[in-house]
Amino acid sequence: MNDNAREDSLASASHRKPGVTAIDVQALATRIRTRILDGSFNASKGHIGSALSIADLVAAVAPRVRGLGTRGPDRDRFVLSKGHAALAWYCALRELHVIDDATLAGYGTDGSLLCTHPDPQLAGNDFMTGSLGQGMSFGVGSAMAALRSQTPWSTYVLLSDSELDEGVTWEAALLAAHHGCGGLTVLLDLNGQQALGFTRDVLDTSSAPRSFEAMGWHLTEVDGHDVTALDEALALSADSRGGRPHLIAARTTAGKGIDFMEGRVEWHYLPMTREQYTSALAQVGGGEHA
Amino acid sequence: MRKAAITELAELARADRRVVLLTADLGFGVLDEFAREFPGQFVNVGVAEQAMVGVATGMAEAGFLPYCYSIATFSFLRPFEFIRNGPVAHRLPIRIIGVGAGTDYAFDGLTHYALEDLALARTQPGLTVYAPVTDEDTRVLVRESYAQSGPAYFRLSRQGAVAPSRDVRSQTPEMGEVLVLALGTAVERAERVAQAVAAAGPSVRVLSVLRFDAATAEDLAAHLTDSRACVTVEDHYRVGGLGAAVAEVVATRGLAVPVVMDAVESLPVGALGSAQYLESKLHRPVGELVSDVLGALKLEADRT
Question: Which chain A residues touch B19 with a CB distance below 8 Å?
Answer without folding.
Answer: none
